[in-house]
Write a structure and sequence with these properties.
Blueprint: H1 2-18, H2 25-56, H3 66-105, E1 127-128, E2 135-141, H4 146-161, E3 166-172, H5 181-192, H6 197-206, H7 213-222, H8 227-236, H9 238-254, E4 262-265, E5 268-270, H10 275-289
Parallel strand pairs: 2-3
Antiparallel strand pairs: 1-3, 2-4, 4-5
Helix pairs in contact: 1-2, 2-3, 5-6, 5-8, 5-9
């Protein structure tokens, strides 16, 4: 019995140290914790039982002092629990082995490349600023993404800091766990039918945490749109707007977008997220062009 318990303790500790990290923490920790707790109880119980048996002259099971009988019963219960846990542990070991093999076969994600220049066409997108500006900032946006809202302000500051020299383009990259991101992109296109695309982009990002079709109507009214026409365009142009969004998503995959927001300056992915960061790269580009 002692050897069996020692083996289980050793296997549990070895699994924690060497390989259990290849499955999710949530999946493994409860079982490992329970194994260790049960093993500790058994070891403690075994020690107390051996002390009692020595004191009572090694009585047969079911005979002698009532405390010994209780300890024997408790030991049986714990042995039953550890048997179940042993079976679960074996199943987990098999799973670990399979996951480990899968991970060895899978290549890791490519590292970020901030030197490559991508061809990002304007296509159906709107352009903010001078169409002929020498610097182009492209942002892949999810309208429910709080970081997109946060970093939209530095973009606006950058456009003001470089009048006529920087233009800005939004590409839509709605994430699957943001259910209103795609409808919001459609709302921006619908506002664009009345020349208010950028005004809608601004208010959508400001209200990303509470978007709904009713909210779209409210925002449309707030920026001076004909709300009836806006909603008509929003619904009747659904297929066209979906096509625009799908093209943006496909483009995002081609230029290695992994999340939102992702920025590109003249086709090169950038880590800039504030005015100073944008200025550093823009100044360098303008210096090279001069």
């Amino acid at each position: 019995m002692g050897r069996r318990i020692f083996t289980l303790v050793f296997v549990a500790a070895l699994g924690i140290l060497l390989g259990v990290g290849i499955v999710s923490k949530q999946a493994r920790d409860p079982l490992v914790k329970e194994l260790i707790e049960q093993q500790t109880l058994i070891l403690q119980g075994q020690k107390r039982l051996e002390q009692k048996l020595e004191e009572k002259g090694l009585p047969a099971r079911g005979e002698g002092d009532v405390n010994v009988a209780q300890l024997l019963l408790r030991q049986q219960v714990l042995e039953g629990r550890i048997a179940v846990l042993e079976s679960q542990w074996k199943d987990l070991e098999k799973a670990l082995k399979g996951v480990g093999e899968d991970r060895r076969e899978q290549a890791g994600p490519p590292s970020e490349d901030y030197s490559k220049i991508y061809d990002i066409s304007v296509d159906h997108s709107f352009v903010r600023g001078n169409q002929e500006a020498p610097v182009t900032i492209v942002e892949f946006v999810d309208f429910q993404c709080p970081f997109c809202a946060r970093f939209h302000i530095p973009v606006s500051e950058t456009l003001k800091a470089y009048p006529g020299k920087v233009k800005y383009i939004v590409k839509n990259f709605p994430l699957s766990f943001h259910p209103m991101a795609r409808p919001a992109a459609k709302a921006s296109f619908a506002a664009g039918e009345q020349g208010k695309y950028w005004e809608m982009v601004d208010v959508l990002l400001e209200n990303g945490g509470g978007l709904s079709e009713a909210k779209f109507e409210e925002l449309a009214k707030g920026i001076g749109l004909d709300v009836n026409k806006f909603m008509k365009d929003y619904k009747e142009n659904d297929a066209k707007y979906n096509e625009f969004i799908n093209k943006d998503l496909q483009l995002g995959g081609q230029v290695q977008v992994r999340g939102t927001p992702t920025f590109y300056i003249n086709g090169r992915k950038t880590m800039a997220r504030d005015l100073e960061g944008f200025k550093t790269e823009i100044d360098e580009i303008l210096k090279e062009q001069n």
